[in-house]
Amino acid sequence: MLDLIRKPIASAFKDYEKAFDEAIKTETYLLSQVLKYVRTQKGKEIRPHLVLLSAGLSGGITPEAIRAAVSLELLHTASLMHDDVVDNTYRRRAGFSVKALWDNKAAILVGDYYLSKSAYISSGICQGRISELLAALGCELSEGEMMQLNNERQLIIDEPTYLEVIRKKTARTFAFCTQSGAISANAPADKEEKLRLFGEYLGMIFQIKDDIFDYFAQNKIGKPTSNDLKEGKMTLPLIFALQTSDKATIKPILNFIRNRDFTHETLSQINQFVIQSGGIDYAEKRMNDFKQLALDTVAGFEDNEFKKALLISVDYFMKRTF
């Protein structure tokens, strides 16, 4: 499925990779070693793919689309390194985090380097519109993290709050991908907005699917099972289970969460509670809701290889296993 998503932009993606590698060149030895390691741990890079596909759908992939894709991936990588420090994470995807192999200082400083490079690369793209959007995205990422931190401390359990957090933390990043692609191709305002919404709905699907993973043991996932819960994050499957179960059933579960009593046995009990209460089924239903919204937003676009790849990406996000 990934091959079908990548096919229409195979040539442009090679240009993106060259531009990204050029952006992180440095003569500072330790920095170069860390950057080289991070590059070997890169994921599927679906975000730059979305930028280029959206540009293609909007009229054509320009050098500005390439720069926008590089800028976004630099910002995203920086956020991951900073998240690893905040969340005290030692694993990143299939390998170790920068924090684990070096230390917190290195992770923060290298993350800052990526942020600065992102700002530099994005400056001037499309009369500054891309850099403005990227700066706004950085603010929303921070706001989302702070909202989540507050929710953890206050034990706030409701779906609208959860959706707003993941919209800021995850969905707006995907919205930037598709909107910046449209901007780089000088798309009309109505098409730009539709592609922005498409990306946002795609991001909602991505994060809900990611939250579902937390309740199942899968070796391919780049984070331990129940990691979200251990960090105090209230995800959609758990929120639904807590809101729809009787008080006697949820009382011990809430006590585990309030007291951070996360032994193997209690985590297993919470997982079974979520699954048996229909939390996973409900989260999958909400993913389908966002899938339909995503499909509706691009229904009026011309049928071509770029649109087909974007539609496949929706199914890929729904069905991915890691």
Q: What is the average per-residue confidence, as pLDDT, rounded to a whole number?
A: 90
- Biggest β-sheet strands, sense, barrel: 2 strands, antiparallel
Detail the poorly predicted runs: 219-224
Number of structurally distinct domains: 1
Q: Indicate the CATH architecture.
A: Orthogonal Bundle
What fraction of residues sit in β-strands? Answer: under 5%
Q: Strands across the major sheet, in which order?
A: 1-2
Oligomer: single chain
**Rg (CA only):** 20 Å
- The assigned structural class equals mainly alpha
How does this structure look, described?
The chain has helices at 2-6, 10-23, 29-40, 46-57, 63-86, 98-101, 104-122, 129-154, 159-184, 189-213, 227-230, 236-244, 247-258, 264-276, 279-297, 305-319, and strands at residues 91-92, 95-96. It has 322 residues and is an all-alpha fold. Helix 5 packs parallel to helix 8 (129-154) and helix 9 crosses helix 10. The radius of gyration is 20 Å and the shape is globular. The two termini are 14 Å apart.
Features:
mainly alpha; Farnesyl Diphosphate Synthase; globular; 2 strands
Q: In summary, what is this structure?
A:
This protein has 322 residues and is mainly α.
Write the layout of secondary structure elements.
Blueprint: H1 2-6, H2 10-23, H3 29-40, H4 46-57, H5 63-86, E1 91-92, E2 95-96, H6 98-101, H7 104-122, H8 129-154, H9 159-184, H10 189-213, H11 227-230, H12 236-244, H13 247-258, H14 264-276, H15 279-297, H16 305-319
Antiparallel strand pairs: 1-2
